[in-house]
What does this fold into?
Amino acid sequence: MRRSCLGLGAIAATDLSLRQSLTAKTISLQKKFRPVPAAAKRIILIFLEGGFSHLDTYDFKPTLAKFAGKPLPKSILPPQFTFSKQGAVIPSPFEWRHWGESGTYASDIFPEVNGRFIDDLCFIHSLHHPANDHVTAKRTLHTGSNVEIRPTLGSWLVYGLGAMNENLPAYIDITPTDPNRPTAFLPTKYGGATVDRPDKNSSRLAWENLSPAFPEQQRHLQFLREFSSANGDDPQIDAMELAFRMQTEAPELLDLNTESAATKKLYGIDEDHTDPFGRALLLARRFAEAGVRYITVNHASTRYGNLWDQHSELENGHRGNARAVDRPIAGLLHDLGRRGLLDDTLVVCGTEFGRTPTFEFFDGATGRHQSGRDHNPNGFTVWMAGAGVKRGHHHGSTDDFGYYAVDDKVDIFDFHATLLHLMGIDHEMLTWFQGGRDFRLTDVSGHVVKDILI
It folds into this structure.
């Protein structure tokens, strides 16, 4: 008994000293990187993978109807197409009208989001970047770089701010198609923890190898920590300790059966079209409420390709995809609002690029126009809602054909600088020394888009 008590005391003392060290380190980093109060404590990024069309959702262009079936005028110099030659101009096949008190002109593709929350959304219509294929465009959106492997926005946030809940990862990536996004030169402890696609066939979700905690694990970790203490921090042991702490909290969070029937209905759970994404977004709300700092939720399919990538059958494809996400997104906004979480949570909804104003044209045997649009990273739309951004606001615009961002342009570095600012971080101060120089999420560029801030 005497040896046991002393052993437990030593474990407790070691744990307390470790926590104090981590807390002091986090406070030191926050003093360095947080020169202004944060409007948001956390970010939920809803990523509609594949490139949903800004021209068929929130960026109305009447010029497309005037030029329907005609080639683009010579004054519009189109960039190199990704897969096809230039086709004729195609107007939006969706119905458009004014929504809400703000009178936002949008299509009918997202009736629940637009009908209930259009006045709460803040739009950027002039986002652009140089990457026109899915792999590099996704990398650019998440990391700011379309060439090098760099840390994601989530990893930078965790590095700068630390965790709010030490029993959970500070960065969680739900239903990704490219899991285990690398942290590049940042230590692996700043990476995202992946949660596989939740569906109605799995009522109790679990991370791989996550089982109930038992005392032997704690003794094992203590031994490893003492054995490696002479060599400084060990990222593998850090990860093992986090996994041990997760076993006390994560299993309950992953069990959606504890939610009421009304809440499940709000997200469209147990309904054919909305169930998978509804479960993913409900899980995101639960993680946000539990103190996770950065959460990405991806609407994508590893089996059928990029869901929103409609090179053909634009109307059917976009309507089907929108039907799957519209109610869950509206449910998330409603749920966050009624719980008071939207006051300090920033919700971002976007995609890796927009689409072209023209049909695709393939040099096949028939040579027919296809009823779809090609990739277009030169000007597209994202929206935000919640902490720190104006409600019912529209920033920037594209040209008359929706090809290029022309007014109040926002590049990817401006976008990331603005998100960091909303989290209370000066993007120019958030650096990591590597290979003889300081690296930043925003490289050597980036300006905060102050026009969208409250």
Q: What stands out?
A: DSSP finds twelve helices and 20 strands in the chain. Confidence is low (pLDDT under 50) at residues 20-24. Residues 1-33 form one domain. The radius of gyration is 23 Å.
